Amino acid sequence: MDVLAVAGGMGDAALVFAAEAGVQPEPSGLVINVFWIVVAAANFLLFFVLAYLIVLKPVGAMVSARQERIEQGLKDADAARRDREAAADQRQAVLAEARREANDIIVRAQRSADDARAQGVADTRTDIERLREQAVAEIDAERLRALAEVRGQVADLALRAAGKVVGETMTSERERRLVDEFLAQATVPGPSSASRN
């Protein structure tokens, strides 16, 4: 508004100047005043410059900044799309590698389980064979102990029976040895010694 006041003040000054110079305006119908045209043009140029500096230049800068932001956003979106595609490819590669490793682990675990089962079966068979041999040895030892005990009892009975037949007590070491030799010759091999052969 100050511009218009200045322009109006300049117009008034021009009229005063024209009146002092002795120029009288003509009261005719259509008058073209070049001075007022120049003043109006100067006012328009001054208004346009002020409007450009106050409104158009900041709006242009905002539009330019917005355009740059939009272009940057489009570039960022394109980069994000490429990154997303690369990440998807990488994720697929990682998943494929994880599946391959999982299959390898399963195969190794299966192989390990099979080996452990085979080792367990072999250990069990070894334990069973050892226990069988131990049982056979214990049975043979028990059979021999029982046989020796039976021999001793038979020898005592034979000596008593012979003593009753002869009428004397037979306790000498010689008679005892004779009965033991007889029983040793008369002993038939047992079933466990035949099963071992």
The gist of it:
With 197 residues, the chain is an all-alpha fold. It has helices at 2-20, 34-166, 173-186, 191-196.
Would you kindly provide a written description of the structure presented here, covering whatever features stand out?
The protein is built from 4 helices and no strands. α1 (2-20) runs antiparallel to α2 and α2 (34-166) crosses α3. It is mainly alpha-helical. Among the domains are: 1-62; 139-196, no CATH class.
| Separation, N- and C-terminal Cα atoms | 135 Å
Q: Specify the number of helices.
A: 4
* Strand residue content: under 5%
Largest sheet: none
Helix proportion of residues, in percent?
over 70%
Count of beta strands: 0
Output the structural class: mainly alpha
Shape: rod-shaped
pLDDT averaged over residues? 81
Poorly predicted tracts of residues: 192-197
Radius of gyration: 67 Å
What descriptors fit this protein?
197 residues; mainly alpha; rod-shaped
Write the layout of secondary structure elements.
Layout lengths: L1 H19 L13 H133 L6 H14 L4 H6 L1
Helix pairs in contact: 1-2, 2-3
